[in-house]
Amino acid sequence: MDKKRVFSGIQATGSLHLGNYLGAIKNWVKMQEQFDNYFCVVDLHTITVPQDPEVLRNNIREVAGLLFAAGLNEKSSVVFIQSHVRAHAELAWLLNCITPMGWLHRMTQFKDKSEKQKEDVSVGLFDYPVLQAADILLYDTHFVPVGEDQKQHVELSRDIAQRFNYRYGDVFVLPDAMIPPVGGRVMGLANPEKKMSKSEDNKNDAIFLLDSPDQIRSKLKRGTTDSMRDIKFDETRPGIYNLLTIYQLLTGKERSEIEEHFSGKSYKDLKEQLAEVVIESLRPLQERYRELTGEEGYLDEMLSIGAEKADARAEEKLRQVYKKIGLR
Ligand code: AMP
Ligand code: TRP
């Protein structure tokens, strides 16, 4: 009865990639029996940068479908779309009013993203971490399983919760980030100095979860390596290190075993074998995705069940918050 609560979110910015899978989703699936889980497609976060409405609508459904296809099930996990539960936007406003601007100015993700857009940056992008805090705090979340890039945002959520509790009395649980020891930062294939990301201009940088076997083989084949020969987990050689780490995460083998297996083999062998491992790992997910999106109405039904459950819990929390602040 007393399972700890887990909450995490994922943006609807186009196809999910191996970094999302290994850094986040795979762990959500693996831990789902152990916790009481809420997983959210954060579409209100997605619109902090410009989106085409039709494309956005499709992306939201694709991401939600992929979450179920990856193995989340409605018995153990509440899966829903953020904008279907009004409390998220509402709590974000209330938290805005106690969050110092200075805290947000320190967020590295905002600095990175805003640099690319300059004057066009929306207020929403600046406020993004407060909405994320609202997501997390609405559900009395203990743990937030995310990739390394989200650590700072989860810490900010904790600070906001603490500030609120100090000012108005205990309302929020203080959340902790849960970052996988390996896989928290999967790097790009073309540029292994940077994390694999959806927005990377080079289309060969990321393996997407719905890529065909040929696309996977071709992207890995072109992956950046180095001019050495031996195949070792050596962090000073980011290309090879990243490929080996992906291999490790997907096969579950020990590092020593993997190094032994590839001893005397070429980079070409590594890339070819890794391609087959990736293809086989994604195959069941891709099959389930096709099945469940082929079934008329199935996804909508699942998402409406999710939204209803999330809404009930979130509304209750929101009521407490209004009362504490003196608005009720
Ligand atoms: P996003 O697609 O930015 O909404 O991220 C969804 C989840 O995937 C978050 O928990 C991220 O931290 C995680 N994630 C995104 N990119 C990577 C990556 N390259 N390596 C590991 N985790 C990642
Ligand atoms: N900011 C997260 C990302 O880019 C997505 C997110 C939104 C999230 N709300 C969240 C993650 C709440 C964890 C918990 O990946």
Could you list the spans in which at least 5 consecutive residues all have pLDDT below 50?
A: none
Indicate how many domains the architecture comprises: 2
SSE run: EHEHHEHHHHEHEHHHHH
User: Hetero groups bound?
Assistant: adenosine monophosphate, tryptophan
Largest sheet at a glance? 3 strands, parallel
Which CATH architecture of the largest domain would you pick? Answer: 3-Layer(aba) Sandwich
How would you describe the shape? globular
Q: Which class of secondary structure composition applies to the elements?
A: mainly alpha
Distance from first to last alpha carbon: 32 Å
Percentage of residues assigned to helices: 40-55%
DSSP helical segment count: 13
How confident overall, as mean pLDDT?
96
**What is the CA-based Rg, rounded?**
21 Å
**Number of beta strands:** 5
CATH class annotation of the largest domain? Alpha Beta
CATH domain fold name of the largest domain? Rossmann fold
